[in-house]
Design brief:
Blueprint: E1 18-22, E2 28-35, E3 39-45, E4 48-54, E5 60-66, E6 70-71, H1 75-83, E7 95-105, E8 110-119, E9 122-136, E10 144-154, E11 173-187
Antiparallel strand pairs: 1-4, 1-11, 2-3, 2-11, 3-6, 4-5, 5-7, 7-8, 8-9, 9-10, 10-11
Length: about 190
């Protein structure tokens, strides 16, 4: 289904026509992965950008994350995640990229986004569930749209295969990674 455009500001049903640029200081790209079966490691990336284009053609979304901007609140772990060939290896793979292949409008301002995620030189299809928070325009400021996106991926699909067996059974790291984005974008 084509993404409806042009709804009045403040509505949660459609994104008005145009090019929308991610406002990184007002947005977040976060993830969570199980650690030692019970705990969850939460992290985020501090450097990213993206564009959502709506209009007469099919809507498109693209985004780029600087892998070196990873932050799990543990400096030693973050250094290992950045530099190790077992993880992000940011010298060889500095960016994580996303390009939508399909965006479908659902009821209640929900969107279903399918696209290609490229990480460590590997491209796989992922699906994201998005919720449009509406659009706003305040006097003296840019028109803005708010989106919340959720998804999940298997880190092994992208060559992130390192793990360690636990003495109690199971593995040190879970394979499923939950992705959560809170996006605030301004009209370009």
């Amino acid at each position: 289904m084509r993404l409806p455009v042009g709804e009045a500001a403040g509505g949660a049903g459609a994104i008005p026509t145009g090019e929308w640029l991610v406002d990184a200081p007002r947005s977040s790209v976060a993830f969570a992965v199980k650690h030692m079966l019970l705990a969850t490691v939460n992290g985020r990336f501090h450097e990213f950008d993206g564009v959502l284009e709506t209009g007469t053609d099919a809507p498109r979304a693209t985004g780029t994350v600087k892998a070196a901007s990873i932050d799990t609140s543990e400096p030693v772990r973050d250094g290992h995640l950045r530099s190790s060939a077992d993880f992000f290896d940011v010298e060889r793979y500095p960016e994580i990229g996303f390009k939508s292949t399909r965006i479908e409008q659902r009821d209640g301002g929900r969107l279903h986004i399918v696209g290609e995620l490229t990480m460590r030189g590997v491209t796989r299809e992922i699906e994201l569930a998005a919720q449009l928070g509406g659009t706003t325009r305040q006097v003296g400021s840019d028109e803005r749209v708010e989106l919340k996106l959720r998804g999940e991926l298997n880190r092994r699909d992208f060559g992130l295969t390192w793990n360690q067996a636990l003495d109690t059974g199971g593995a040190l790291l879970g394979n499923k990674v939950k992705i959560e984005l809170e996006i605030s974008a301004v009209k370009g």
